[in-house]
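Per your request, structure below.
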């Protein structure tokens, strides 16, 4: 498989505080990578830096062979990078369909449309004309993933979809994500639930204090080994 994303010696900070430190990581076309690690390990900052929502303080991000380290976020979207941010960040006064259509204005050519998103997330079809701000957490999360899909991404960066959702909503969102992955989508998925992360991903990458401490195919590691890396015991 060809490398789609190549992160090399990346640093990112919040003020003086380092959040991502000298981090290198490669994601191949068609791969599903679970990014795990304790609170504050730097996962969100890493995704945001790759998406252009946070500046890199050093190192490079290469996407499909091009150095995009300094590129504006919206120009990364048109190249095929889409972030599903922590906290969803929908337009609360727009409907589900309007949230999707706004994202679609930046779309690359591709298969995703309002209709195909509603097919992939059937729970959205009956509420497509409801205001996003009035929806449940699970419905909002599905809308947020759908919004990212509307840009026809080549790489989907998904930050903690489970956060604050009822278990049944998590199951529903993951059912759709699993189908996307089975369909060949390239995904980096931040997930606190290790078992769930390992059940959907091909590879698991664990971060600790801004660094990668484990990067291995899911089939070659036990849950206990990942837990040890998670707590810095590896
Ligand atoms: P979580 O699961 O809690 O989101 P994370 O692994 O995604 O954790 P980050 O949110 O990237 O980690 O945080 C990495 C470090 O940067 C932490 O020490 C955190 O306190 C700090 N940090 C994150 N966001 C900010 C911010 N906006 N301002 C200052 N420090 C921040």
């Amino acid at each position: 498989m060809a490398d789609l994303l190549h992160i090399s010696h990346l640093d990112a900070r919040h003020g003086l505080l380092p959040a991502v430190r000298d981090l290198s990581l490669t994601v191949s076309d068609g791969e599903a990578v679970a990014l795990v690690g304790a609170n504050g390990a730097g996962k969100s900052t890493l995704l945001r830096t790759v998406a252009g929502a946070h500046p890199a303080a050093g190192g490079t991000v290469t996407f499909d062979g091009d150095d995009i380290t300094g590129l504006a976020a919206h120009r990364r979207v048109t190249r095929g990078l889409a972030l599903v941010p922590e906290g969803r960040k929908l337009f609360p006064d727009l409907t589900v369909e309007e949230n999707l259509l706004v994202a679609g204005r930046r779309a690359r050519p591709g298969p995703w449309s309002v209709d195909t998103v509603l097919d992939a997330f059937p729970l959205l079809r009956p509420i497509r004309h409801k205001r996003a701000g009035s929806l449940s957490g699970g419905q909002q999360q599905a809308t947020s993933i759908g919004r990212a899909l509307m840009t026809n991404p080549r790489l989907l960066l998904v930050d903690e979809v489970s956060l604050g959702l009822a278990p049944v909503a998590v199951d529903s969102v993951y059912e759709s994500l699993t189908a996307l992955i089975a369909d060949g989508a390239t995904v980096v998925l931040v997930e606190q639930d290790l078992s769930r992360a390992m059940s959907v991903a091909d590879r698991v990458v664990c971060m600790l204090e801004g660094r990668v401490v484990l990067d291995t195919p899911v089939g070659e590691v036990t849950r206990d080994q990942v837990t040890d890396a998670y707590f810095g015991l590896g």
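The chain is about 30% helix and 25% strand.

Regards,
D.
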